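Give me a protein, keeping tokens residue-aligned:
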Amino acid sequence: MSQANIPHSHQRVPHFNAAALLRWARRHVILLVLVATCTLATARYEAFLTAENLFNVLRQNSMAGLLALGMLFAILSGGIDLSSGALLAVGGFVAAAVSDHGLAVAVGAALSVTGLLGLANGLIITRGRVQPFIATLAVGMMARGMLLAFTREQSIRVAPEAMDFKWLGRGWLGPVPLPVLIVASAYAGAAAVLGHTRFGRHVYAMGDNDEAARLMGLNVGRVRTIVYVVSGALAGLSGALLAARVGVGQPTAGLGWELGAITAVVLGSTTLAGGQGGAWTTLLGVLLLAIIFNIFNLEGTLNSYWQWVLRGVFLLVVVMLQTNRRTTAPVRAA
């Protein structure tokens, strides 16, 4: 039977939906930018696509990835965590100080101490009714100050015999660096929690509308406190990884890292107002920043100081774009 004799209702007419394609592109803009950036870097630098370079980039940014994941929980809940850089330093120092007792003790101690500091953040915010910006900034300043005073600004070396702890930051599991697998597992777990658990739904509800969440019977104080415990613990794990990698716990580690974490989260399409975002898009934001600065290193045109300037520019531009999108979005009819 010829095509002309086929009834019109049975003919498959190709249909191109430009509006649907545009909506998909807007939802996945961070992925498209990351792919485009990697494509340009591959074309320009022979060393970019080598396994050595890519694994080095991933391992170097594993600590930043964990810090950004903790920041994601805080921002999704409608808050922010400006203490995370200081808590990273605390976690790294504690882990290095007890590294001679083995991997489990070192990591457990780091997570316990920074988790307690995260608990302090949560209680100050919920019981003391202090804004997250001020509460976490104050806790971070106190934690950093006490650490510097206790150590007299001196670093502490990881115990020479703590090979299992050093393996945490330097080891490989098969062909993949262990820190990369830790970060991937953390993001997979966070995505599952945020997308498929009651706690995750409560975090989104609280960030979307705090008062409405209260009226629905949600224990906002408890959920928010848990959020900051999670953020603190992830900062401690990040510090332990850093100490294991470089072999010392540094009281000055993590200075300004919380701003890089915020930048990665916002680049991953998470709104600073809370209630919108996700773990995988945050990971894409971390990767995009990592690839961009790897390109500058390969080019050799931008030193570390100017990289901080660029991080500030990224954060400012993305926040301005988010603000413009909210103000120009059409109002939906009820």
